[in-house]
Amino acid sequence: MKNETVFICAECGKQLLKWMGRCPGCGQWNTIGEKQVSVSKGGGPARVVSPDEQNDLMCLSEVQSLHEPRLNTGIHELDRVLGGGVVRRSVILVGGDPGIGKTTLLMQALGLLSRKGEKVLYVSGEESFEQLKLRADRLGLAGNGFLVLVENELETILDKVSQAAPSVMVLDSVQSVFSRASDSHPGSPMQIREVAGRLLQTTKRGSAGCFIVGHVTKDGDLAGPKLLEHMVDAVLYFEGERGHPYRILRAVKNRFGSVSEIGVFEMTDAGLSEVANPSELFLSERPRDASGSAVTALVEGTRPILAEVQALVTGPVPGQGRRTCIGIDAQRLALIIAVMEKKLGLVLGDQNIFLNAVGGIRAIEPATDLAIAAAMLSSFLDKSIPSGTLVFGEIGLAGEIRSVSRASARLHEASRLGYTRIVGPVSNLDQFPKSREVVGIGISRIRELGAALFE
């Protein structure tokens, strides 16, 4: 083995023999950096080699299955998103806007684990011991097994982790830590890749679960090379609107669970509190007898959630009207508008249309199509949808109303919250509740929507 200099793209990991302004692999500009690696004397392409890399072949049937129990953090919403708890030797990346509550959530999780007798470690590269103590006092955290470390150098951090041998650790944040093995500055793509790779390697050899906090860019993406998200076992995004107390934790990658689960929290003076019933939360401030409001049923992972879709249709205006949507897919909105114009004879091209999925929820699954159309029709006609009405269904390009999956779970949640009027696909009619108190209205074409809603 000998050391040689290679040039590596921070975005796609492609290795080159010389520096180039644009990576030929991914086409990105200014992403290629210099790195010293160990290569074989026999020639061939250079590659990064671990000091104790094992190249033995094994038969898959000989590999021991992993049956270790997960660590429950004590925060049910977090455990739900993780798939049942923290898997040992897993690396979990948590991203979100500044001040959204990432540090608060992870410190609360470590505090609850320490109360159970687990040894936990919180490594901060951005705050002092005194700042961490102030936050812990505000959150009511205590425990002899709760260790904290303020350090930016990766080698020192790994040495302390080896000494402490925690069950779960948190690194806050990966952009603030640097390694002596790389000459680039902290936060650069090369440093982030080096720090994450070494931390991943150490975690897989040990027995601890590891959370990594990552900053996000102004576009909402995790800062650093995209390779970072490929390296870790799970990627969680913490979302929420500024000035709004509610937060949503969403998994976008999870090797040990579903990527459709969400956790809902409320930010309070004493930290984050779990919201066990998101449906009641999202509908708690719904206006009564107001046009442009429709209630639909979503399914996030295994959880059915009722959410409100609001629409405001105003006009006519000169030229093409504006289209603004929050929490709703703009492409599906364009499709629904086109079908409504064609099949209902409405003129919406010169109307300003504003849509909002209330509470920061994402109403992007096809089952919300009919509710979006209902909200727009209600606002356009200035007629309110009767109270207690739930609307769900997918709209096809021919104006047909298609069935949706897991209709029974959606309807059970609606029945539990007292919704007695269901407007949905006629093909799902057999799954509607068999009760005298519940009126089920099945429709097969979008032209039947107005009569089903208002008559």
Assign the CATH class of the largest domain.
Alpha Beta
Query: What is the quaternary state of this protein?
Result: single chain
List low-pLDDT spans. Answer: 40-53
CATH topology description of the largest domain: Rossmann fold
Give the terminus-to-terminus CA distance.
Answer: 80 Å
The major β-sheet equals: 9 strands, mixed
- Global structural class: alpha/beta
Q: What value does the average pLDDT take?
A: 88
Number of domains: 3
Q: Calculate Rg over CA atoms.
A: 26 Å
Number of beta-strand segments: 21
Helix content: 25-40%
Could you say which overall geometry the principal axes of the C-alpha atoms support? Answer: globular
CATH H-level superfamily title of the largest domain: P-loop containing nucleotide triphosphate hydrolases
Please identify, by name, the CATH architecture of the largest domain: 3-Layer(aba) Sandwich
H/I helix tally:
11
* Beta content: 25-35%
Strand order of the largest sheet: 6-5-7-8-4-9-10-11-12
Family: Belongs to the RecA family. RadA subfamily.
Protein name: DNA repair protein RadA
GO molecular function: ATP binding; ATP-dependent DNA damage sensor activity; damaged DNA binding; hydrolase activity; zinc ion binding
Keywords: ATP-binding, DNA damage, DNA repair, DNA-binding, Hydrolase, Metal-binding, Nucleotide-binding, Stress response, Zinc, Zinc-finger
